[in-house]
Design a protein that fits this description.
The complex is a heterodimer. Chain A is an all-alpha fold. Chain A has 10 helices and no strands. In chain B, α3 packs antiparallel against α4 and α3 crosses α6. Classes of the chains: A mainly alpha, B mainly alpha.
């Protein structure tokens, strides 16, 4: 097994076995979406109209909640220093850790979204597209979150700071993710252009974000 | 640029430039405000409120220009490791945030009589708001990291990430806004604006730019002195510890 695959498998296993790491993220997602109608009122038409936006915003918050996990534990116990001296270049290391974060938060959250969509009266035929946008957009979420996680490594109140740094960068993901679904429900126009732009943002983040994250890791580990 | 790497030489330069710059700002700002308030005619549609533009537009220019300064300084920190680049970026961030805030507040005050509401989710307003949030993130990151070297490099990385993202955010916000409502908002197109309004605007723009340079130099001087005080305090503590032992 190559070092890259071994690291990926290790990170996914750790997230899976670390008592309820994925469960807590999904629980957070559920509670954020469930609490919204109490603030907005039980009008199903209104909820259906704003469901894509609510599901996306709650997903971003849930993914951010777990973002400091990407590097934090390995930084605390010194694993990161060992990994940095190993055969993997630092950007690749950051990319693999972001990928592991995507597999253990982005994918479960995207799969859970249709269930929460039912609570919000999202039309059934919009569900496949919703899941597709989330699969296309969540890689950008994880890879950009890794930049924030590496910048705030070892700082006090790093969770809050991470949110302040990263949430503004999610504006394009949010816009194109939500537009794709609402284009499909209410129109006007084809959902393809925003979907393709969302995919482009994800692909660009996969390439560029690990470089920034690696540079930030270097400043943190010095 | 290399000779400026010596902070003492830089401080001498600042000391020599500041009085002249301050005089220039007094002249420019005085002329600009006089032109804006007394010479320039009220707009045929907007009346007197058009005068808000003379503060609003230069502030918005400077808000964006300041991020450019920070991004260039970030390159200076990461590539050339210029000792002043980090100081320049750190000193520019709060000034940029203030200009952004001024642009947002004056825009909102201008919006009330023009659009009937303090805030619309217009593409320009929204991207300015996101810019303001990016500034806040930069300042917060500087505050959160105690060691100045790491703070400077981390902020430089964040500034470059932000600089790459600003065009994407601006594009996506434009796209989002045109999707929801057609542009019903007044647009100041450069060439279509009357020279009677344009001259005071440019004078005010020059005044604001000079003001930015002055504030930036002063903030950089403060930051350099602050670091010296910190270094002196550290050696003092070390001496005290040595004497105690």
């Amino acid at each position: 097994m190559s070092p890259a695959v071994a690291l990926l498998v290790r990170d996914v296993k750790l997230a899976w076995r670390e008592g309820g790491a994925i469960g807590v993220v999904l629980g957070f997602y559920l509670v954020v979406v469930a609490i919204m109608p109490f603030g907005l009122g039980p009008d199903l038409n209104l909820l259906a109209r704003i469901a894509p936006g609510m599901l996306w915003v709650a997903l971003l918050l849930a993914a951010l909640l777990s973002a400091d996990r990407i590097f934090h534990n390995d930084y605390e116990d010194g694993t990161l220093d060992v990994l940095a001296t190993g055969p993997l270049p630092l950007p690749l290391l950051a990319a693999i850790k972001s990928l592991a974060h995507w597999l253990t938060t982005g994918v479960p959250l995207a799969l859970m979204a249709p269930v929460l969509g039912l609570l919000l009266n999202l039309p059934l035929d919009a569900m496949p597209l919703l899941v597709a946008t989330m699969f296309a957009g969540t890689p950008a979420v994880s890879f950009i979150a890794a930049i924030g996680a590496s910048l705030t490594l070892g700082l006090r109140r790093s969770g809050l700071l991470l949110a302040l740094l990263v949430l503004p960068l999610y504006v394009p993901v949010l816009i194109f993710g939500v537009s794709t679904v609402s284009m499909n429900i209410v129109g006007p126009g084809s959902p393809w252009p925003p979907f393709l732009m969302l995919t482009a943002i994800s692909l660009a983040s996969i390439v560029l974000a690990p470089l920034a994250a690696a540079a930030a890791l270097r400043t943190a580990m010095r | 640029m290399i000779s400026l790497a010596n902070p003492t030489r830089f401080l001498n330069l600042v000391g020599a430039v500041v009085p002249w710059l301050a005089a220039l700002i007094v002249i420019l700002l005085g002329t600009g405000l006089y032109l804006a308030f007394f010479v320039s005619p009220p707009d045929y549609q907007q009346g007197e409120t058009v005068r808000i533009m003379y503060v609003h537009v230069p502030a918005a220019w400077l808000a964006m220009g300041c991020f450019l300064v920070i991004a260039i300084a970030a390159l200076g920190t990461l590539i050339w490791r210029h000792p002043l680049a980090d100081v320049a970026a750190k000193a520019a961030a709060p000034i940029g945030a203030c200009f952004t805030f001024v642009a947002l507040v004056t825009g909102s005050l201008w919006g009330k009589p023009m659009w009937g509401t303090y805030w619309v989710w217009d593409a320009r307003l929204t991207s300015m708001l996101v810019l303001f949030l990016l500034y806040l993130g930069l300042i917060a990151l500087w505050q959160a990291i105690e060691e100045p070297g790491r703070a400077g490099r981390a902020a430089a990385i964040l500034a470059l990430v932000g600089a790459i993202n600003i065009p994407i955010i601006k594009f996506s916000v434009n796209w989002w806004n045109t999707l929801h409502q057609p542009a019903s908002v007044l647009r100041v197109d450069g060439p279509s604006i009357d020279p009677a309004l344009l001259t005071p605007l440019f004078v005010m723009g020059a005044a604001f730019a000079a003001l930015f340079v002055l504030l930036h130099l002063l903030a950089m001087r403060t930051e350099i002195l602050r670091r010296r005080v910190r270094a002196l305090q550290q050696t003092q503590v070390e001496h005290a510890v040595l004497a105690g032992a």
